[in-house]
Design goal:
The complex is a heterodimer of chains A (315) and B (429). Helix content of chain A is 38%, strand content 14%. Chain A is built from 13 helices and 9 strands. Chain A has helices spanning 21-35, 63-74, 95-104, 119-124, 142-156, 174-185, 214-218, 232-235, 242-249, 253-256, 279-282, 289-308, 310-314, and strands spanning 52-57, 78-83, 109-114, 130-136, 163-167, 189-193, 209-211, 223-226, 264-266. With 429 residues, chain B is an alpha/beta fold. Chain B folds into 2 domains: 5-58 and 378-427, Roll (Urease, subunit C, domain 1), CATH 2.30.40.10; 61-369, Alpha-Beta Barrel (TIM Barrel), CATH 3.20.20.140. Chain B is built from 12 helices and 16 strands. In chain B, strand 11, helix 7 (244-255) and strand 12 (260-264) form a beta-alpha-beta unit. In chain B, helix 2 runs parallel beside helix 3 and helix 6 runs parallel beside helix 7 (244-255). Chain B starts with a strand and ends with a strand. The chains are: A alpha/beta (315), B alpha/beta (429). The interface between A and B is medium-sized, with 23 and 21 residues. Chain A: Pfam families: OTCace (PF00185), OTCace_N (PF02729). Chain A: One of its GO terms (cellular component) is cytosol. Chain A: It comes from Alkalidesulfovibrio alkalitolerans DSM 16529. Chain A: Keywords: Pyrimidine biosynthesis, Transferase. Chain A: GO terms for molecular function: amino acid binding; aspartate carbamoyltransferase activity.
Chain lengths: 315, 429
């Protein structure tokens, strides 16, 4: 456990920019202490017994939802799943009314995945329980960024001074936005690489390098993070076809020849093998994809612990 | 001839042939018209009803050239009675209301109904001036029956809310409307370039992860319209201009003699896209709030006359409709109650003179749309607003007359307020 026993200062986790570097360090330290639980024969401790967490995933998710579910259960919290299709949202109920209904059931936290940017903030402003953003629209995915940075920190000891290239659909990626904030504040240099149609208009003001050529972007990079390409981008006229994207912006072994030795490859998943990432790279020794998944459980255990015990710590 | 009402000691916001701006005056009214405006003399007595206006500014009743009153069809947001009440309180004596009601005002019978409701609910003013739809159902497929509607009382025609994509259709609509001496008002938004957004595309939308609407979507259609106005030599009025590029295009067209006029709104003079930070749906408006550079361009354009009119684009929505995720919220700001105070807040810094405010909110819309206004000359309608520039008030349910409170200024202290409003010499506020 972290030695820091001061009350956790945040009610909600909406994006990484709320967190100070000391907060991030505390999350990482706590996650390290929980990693050991995940290696035990009996992977359960009573730390959050009696606490309840609603996993409100109004948008499809496999790994984030399961990761939070596993994290909560390993700390003995009761987790309840709610999907948009099975909820009153599908009957036209507003997010506000759904949230107030859930609040009346007195959960300690709601983990929200939602297709609209700002939805977590919307909920957090109206609910007394903690709201943890598990991805809102194109805006933020703070727990993914934390687990990515945690994974790289475990690998390198620190991300400071490292060059991380994020490759793919930046414009529509909540993962990219949160990672840019967190990795740059932790001292990494972040490069973004995408066609202009997949970069947001305001990207020139971000603290990043912009590239349109993968070979240039990954040169001497210490890590390359590929983002999932969504097929609707082609229907929206942002790309011509998968083949051209794969040939022009997909990460292949030849690109990595120019990267730093021992370059690490990440992907938040789900992967389109052969599109944004060559299949051999996804399974290679350079790949940290499964490490990200494992780290995700530890980081989310840390987050649930910190947010769900903040009141007790304050007393 | 002796007056039946005198408004004593008010400071005139705009000059007249006989009295300079900023003079303290006694405004004499007889039978609903201005009898005379004379220099104020505290020792002079009148044997008629007298209203004390010391410390107050005298303005003519204002014209709002762009409002949405939601009736028929969405009276839970606003209705003609509540909208006109908000107008009266905000200093507007004439309200031009857009056609995107449910049903759409694309038929003379609907126009007549709206006017009947207005006359019944506010027999002494403010006056309603319906703007008819350009096309049936706002679908831009068939022209609306403009001759009938003009005769029934439509003052202009517009598909505001649903921009007309087809240049050919729009051209024919402008020509047809002109046949009946009516102007077309265009909501400029090149629809294939403008995703349903509600905020400007740029730095803030990138940070918030929201879809943005680029300024070029507005400017591209402004370019079409101003060239068309020049080509046809027929007037076109550009609604709610929000960006610098549109201003430059309008200035270019006016320089070539094109019969183009344009309006902007208080929020484009006072707010930037940063008002959307925190996903504030109260700042979600179409066209979206732009950048500081655009705000400065809009202020200069109003000051210099490139933008002729300041209108409210009063777009009321119910609270539950705005209390949703940003992407789902409807666009619009409720503006009738607050517009004059907000615009007058720009006068102390000399961005706009009070006379320019009067021109942009009364004389210019009166001239463009043919509404008689008060210039404080003998014989003018005695439509007078008394405005207290030192009155502090907080925009709230209690202080606003509109049914809707969807304004970014809700809960904020606003300086300056209408304290009395006369139409045809009769006090309506």
């Amino acid at each position: 456990m972290s030695n820091d026993t001061a009350p956790w200062p945040h009610k909600d986790l909406l994006d990484t920019d709320q967190l100070s570097l000391a907060d991030v360090k505390r999350i990482f330290d706590t996650a390290v202490s929980f990693q050991e639980i995940n290696e035990r024969p009996v992977k359960k401790v009573p730390t959050l017994r009696g606490k309840s967490v609603i996993l409100f995933f109004a948008e499809a998710s496999t790994r984030t939802k399961t990761s939070f579910d596993v994290a909560g259960k390993r700390l003995s919290a009761d987790t309840f799943s709610l999907a948009s299709s099975g909820s009153s949202l599908s009957k036209g109920e507003s997010l506000k009314d759904t949230a107030l209904t859930l609040q009346a059931m007195a959960p300690d936290a709601i983990v929200l995945r939602h297709r609209y940017s700002g939805s977590s903030r919307f909920l957090a402003e109206r609910l007394e329980c903690s709201v943890i953003n598990a991805g809102d629209g194109w805006h933020a995915h703070p727990t993914q960024a934390l687990l990515d940075a945690f994974t790289l920190t475990q690998e390198w000891g620190s991300v400071a001074g490292k060059a991380v290239c994020i490759l793919g659909d930046i414009a529509h990626s909540r993962v990219a936005r949160s990672n840019v904030d967190l990795l740059t504040r932790l001292g990494a240099t972040v490069r973004l690489c995408a066609p202009k149609t997949l970069l947001p208009m305001g990207v020139s003001t971000w603290p990043v390098e912009i590239h349109h050529n993968v070979t240039e972007a990954v040169r001497d990079a210490n890590a390359v993070m590929c983002l999932r390409l969504q097929l609707e981008r082609m229907q929206a006229g942002l790309l011509p076809d998968l083949r051209e994207y794969a040939r022009t912006f997909g990460l292949s072994p030849r690109h990595l020849e120019r990267a730093a030795p021992n370059v690490r490859v990440l992907h938040p998943g789900p992967m389109n093998r052969g599109v944004e990432i060559d299949s051999t790279l996804a399974d290679s020794m350079n790949s940290l994809v499964l490490d990200q998944v494992a780290s995700g459980v530890a980081v989310r255990m840390a987050l649930l612990f910190l947010y769900l015990t903040r009141k007790e710590a304050a007393q | 001839m002796s007056p039946d009402l005198v408004i004593r000691g008010g400071r005139l916001a705009c000059g007249t042939a006989a009295v300079k701006a900023d003079c303290l005056t006694d405004c004499l009214v007889k039978d609903g018209r201005i009898l005379d405006v004379v220099p104020h003399d505290p020792d002079r007595t009148y044997e008629c009803e007298s209203v004390e206006a010391t410390g107050l500014v005298l303005l003519p009743s204002l014209i709002d050239a762009h409002a949405h009153l939601r009736e028929p069809g969405q009276e839970y947001k606003e209705d003609i009675a509540s909208g006109l009440a908000a107008a009266a309180a905000g200093g507007f004596g004439h309200v031009m209301c857009m056609a995107n009601t449910r049903p759409v005002n694309d038929d003379a019978s609907i126009t007549r109904d709206m006017l009947d409701i207005a006359r019944r609910s506010h027999p002494h003013g403010p006056r309603l001036h319906p703007i008819g739809a350009l096309s049936k159902g706002l679908r831009a497929e068939e022209l609306a029956p403009m001759a009938d509607m003009a005769q029934a009382g439509c003052i202009a025609f517009s598909n505001d809310g649903l921009p007309v994509a087809s240049a050919e259709f729009f051209r024919r609509a402008v020509e047809y409307a002109a046949t009946f001496e009516r102007i077309v008002i265009d909501h400029c938004e090149e629809p294939t370039m403008a995703p349903a957004a509600g905020m400007n595309e740029g730095v803030v939308s990138a940070t918030l992860g929201l879809k943005g609407q680029p300024w070029v979507a507005e400017a591209a259609q402004v370019a079409r319209d101003v060239l068309l106005a020049e080509y046809l030599n027929l007037p076109i009025h550009i609604a709610h201009v929000s960006c610098k590029a549109s201003v430059e295009l309008i200035a270019f067209a006016k320089g070539r003699g094109a019969p183009v006029t344009a309006e902007t709104c208080p929020h484009y003079l006072l707010l930037t896209e940063e008002a959307c930070l925190g996903y504030s749906t109260r700042a979600k408006v179409n066209p979206p709030l732009r950048t500081q550079e655009d705000v400065e361009a809009m202020r200069l354009a109003v000051e210099g006359g490139v933008i002729d009119i300041i209108a409210t684009d009063h777009a009321p929505h119910a609270e539950h409709e705005k209390e949703v995720e940003f992407d789902l919220a409807p666009c619009g700001i409720s503006g009738l109650d607050t517009a004059l105070s907000l615009v007058m807040s720009l006068t102390p810094g000399q961005i706009l003179s009070e006379a320019r405010v009067v021109e942009a909110m009364c004389h210019a819309p009166g001239r463009i749309f043919g509404i008689p206004v008060n210039r404080f000359a003998p014989g003018d309608p005695a439509d007078v607003v008394l405005y207290d520039p030192h009155h502090r008030w907080v925009a709230s349910r209690e202080t606003m007359r509109s049914k809707s409170l969807n304004t970014p200024w809700l809960g904020r202290t606003i300086m300056g307020r209408v304290t009395a409003h006369f139409m045809a010499g009769r006090r309506i506020v």
